[in-house]
Amino acid sequence: MDGNMSGNTLQERRQGAMQVLSHAPAADIALRMAELPLPPYQQLRAPENGLVMVRGRIGGDGAPFNLGEATVSRAAIRLHSGEVGFGYVLGRDGEKARLIALCDALIQSPDHASAIEVKVVAPLRAEMRAARDQAAAQAAATRVDFYTMVRGEG
Amino acid sequence: MYVAVKGGERAIENAHRLLAHERRGDRNVPELSLAQISEQLGLAVDRVMSEGSLYDRELAALAIKQARGDLIEAIFLVRAFRATLPRFGATEPVDTGAMRVQRRVSSTFKDIPGGQVLGPTFDYTHRLLDPQLAMASDPDAPALAEASHAPTPRVTDILGQDGLIEPSPQTVEGAPVGDLTRDPLGFPAGRDLRLQNLARGDEGFLLALGYSTQRGYGRNHPFAGEIRFGEVEVEFFAEEIGFAVPLGSIELTECQMVNQFKGSATEPPCFTRGYGLAFGQSERKTMSMALVDRALRARELGEDLVAPAQDEEFVLSHSDNVQATGFVEHLKLPHYVDFQSELGLLRKLRREFAEANAEPALKEAAE
User: Fold this and answer.
1) What is the ipTM of this complex?
2) Least CB-CB distance to B200: which of A22, A68, A133?
3) How far is the alpha carbon of A54 from chain B, nearest alpha carbon, in Å?
4) Could you tell me which of A51, A48, A57, A55 has the C-alpha nearest to residue B79?
């Protein structure tokens, strides 16, 4: 999954948005949300910090094992129109979890889905990709180009 | 008999006050921020996250500051903190094959799909102290090159296609994933529990054990098939949502050791493997872990159990530096009553010794 819009089911759109939002600083999400008219909503689950056990696989591709834990914050909200949104994100930033939950609910609302995608998720996705491209380009510059020295007439 | 000893409270309080003062150091020197520790002492943060067994850069940086740079003390603080939070569940297993690779080297193949990417490494530096770093530094921006979007398959996947290396053990249907934070470790331990133990184990301990296997104590002829470092996505299946939720990404280092062969009358010989995985950029740790993981498979692979690194109970019982430091350092806490009883016993033994030696002398004098 690369956080793109290739998935057309609602679930894929929600996952794609969550992936982008999880990588964005909370302040950036809040800034973009502030430009949108938001419908009334209520908090279902106040932001709460906890842990997840991160799993790896034996040999990278075998049976799972428990590598170690990571901090996670989560929240849930409900729009008055009924859509329930969830936010789960690495770290201990409850406000970020709440913002993700709000976006998740809005994506499920036909009245708001497109504005959230265009005004919030798409620009943050572009920023995420730019940061990744930058890191990839820096790594690529350290790639070894082997050449073979030929001695004599071979 | 219990002897009540009181009077330490004020001394303890003042000792902690003095500790805070020493931690701060010269107040004319600017105080360290957590961001400075996280950004500029990143590998210390990685180690504290790995061995503290908690991925949270900010908490690890705080622990390092609080511990005055004593990393084992910082790991202890992180372990204690994790016990205060509820656990929501376990993530989907991360896919290291899909890692956004920042560094990836193989000592077994020169030409690997995706290439050899050195990334940010101390390798090939001259290990000469750089006096310029003593002043404010403003290094050049990193060089850029066009990134290939070709996949970077694991070297072990490539060897596996031809059956030249043993496959990784697959999930046994219905078998739970062992968790030593929930159940006490028993022996023999499954590979899942061994890897969990090693992943949080002390880097120095694992380094020494891995080194011992190279020097002949449980030799298993390793090659660093691949070491990779970069970001992987983490997903968590949340029941209330009904699908795997992306949580963000974490940095991991993975090491695949490729070791000498096993085979049997019915199976052709193939390379065996040892595995290392840790939070952050933890290369020495994952290499050591992979050596020790392979050594601990001695029984499974029918090798002679002759060396400390092959002794599962010895390795797994002594790898945890929080447990180890707790038991070693408790020796400095008051043992006055225990010691009084030992002192009493010793005096009695010496009295008996003196009496026994005095008797022959008296006898001789009488004769």
Assistant:
1) 0.93
2) A68
3) 5
4) A51
